[in-house]
Amino acid sequence: MSIRLPLGRLASRRLTTPQPISTATRPATLPRVLRQQQQRAYSSEPPRANNPNKVKFWPFFAIIGLGTAGYIALANRRKGTAPVPGGSQPNTPTASGAADAAGPVFSPKDVTVVFVLGGPGAGKGTQCARLVAEHGFTHLSAGDLLRAEQDRPGSQFGDLIRDYIKNGLIVPMEVTVKLLENAMADALRASGGRTGRFLIDGFPRKLDQAYKFEESVCPARLVLFFDCPEKVMEARLLDRGKTSGRADDNAESIRKRFRVFVETSMPVVDYYERQGKVVKVQAVSAPEEVFAETQKRLRERLGAGF
């Protein structure tokens, strides 16, 4: 059996829309969350009630803050131990980052060190030989020590030194500094005393070598710098190469050595010049004239009886 409603009543039912419940007649039992949603439907303010699904960001901020504080503390500690060019200060950290807590092996009160610098072929060896003969210095050539070490039977550094010299590169400073220290100690033992004067030829060739030597071996008194044009030096080296037998006395190696000297050794000269320790001598003239000028300049700095 089917029940049929009058058409008018059916239409009235279809056209009638539900009326919203007014707040006055709304039951008190309406859930609180539903009432809050209705009250805030047109508000941009977010609900203040606690939402269990809401992401809490404060732990992330706390972690970021702790990480930043830790990084700053680490950076400050590293900054406090960063290498500082110390010149003659014995306990200053070296350029490689290690400090020599014991200080230099030799005291500048007992040992006078004069670094002798100049481009390859500037005449350093010739002038040092004259100073040794007439003024009693001990001449130590970093290059000669390295070449002797590379030829010494059983030397663990022989191959390394040979490759560096052949390619016009600078041998690692730890090797060179140790060879110089040993040579100075041997010279003092041979003389039977604690005092001595040393001309260290061709060293330091880089700033880190200067820092390392002064911190671990002895501070330098002066830097004797022989200034000479490259064309003059190249001609001298090529002429020397005819009889020297040195692997680096050829045009290619000579030009490499010039570039290395300008890039690495000239900053050493500039560094000591700012300290007022550089004695500059023009080395273009004949060896006798250069030596006369060298003696004159050294008397001005070391005294008449140097």
TrEMBL record:
Gene3D superfamilies: P-loop containing nucleotide triphosphate hydrolases. One of its GO terms (biological process) is pyrimidine nucleotide biosynthetic process. A ribonucleoside 5'-phosphate binds at R147, L169, I170, V171, G202, F203, P204, R205, Q209, R246, R257. Its main location: cytoplasm. ATP binds at G121, A122, G123, K124, G125, T126, R240, S285. Residues 239-249 are annotated as: LID. Binds 1 Mg(2+) ion per monomer. Keywords: ATP-binding, Cytoplasm, Kinase, Nucleotide-binding, Nucleus, Pyrimidine biosynthesis, Transferase. It catalyses: UMP + ATP = UDP + ADP. InterPro entries: Adenylat/UMP-CMP_kin, Adenylat_kinase_CS, P-loop_NTPase, UMP_CMP_kinase. Residues 1-30, 81-102 are annotated as: Disordered. Residues 141-171 are annotated as: NMPbind. Its cofactor is Mg(2+). Pfam families: ADK. GO terms for cellular component: cytoplasm; nucleus. Its EC number is 2.7.4.14. Coiled coil: none annotated. Catalyzes the phosphorylation of pyrimidine nucleoside monophosphates at the expense of ATP. Plays an important role in de novo pyrimidine nucleotide biosynthesis. Has preference for UMP and dUMP as phosphate acceptors, but can also use CMP, dCMP and AMP. HAMAP family: Adenylate_kinase_Adk (MF_00235), Adenylate_kinase_UMP_CMP_kin (MF_03172). Belongs to the adenylate kinase family. UMP-CMP kinase subfamily. This is Uridylate kinase. It comes from Cordyceps fumosorosea (strain ARSEF 2679).
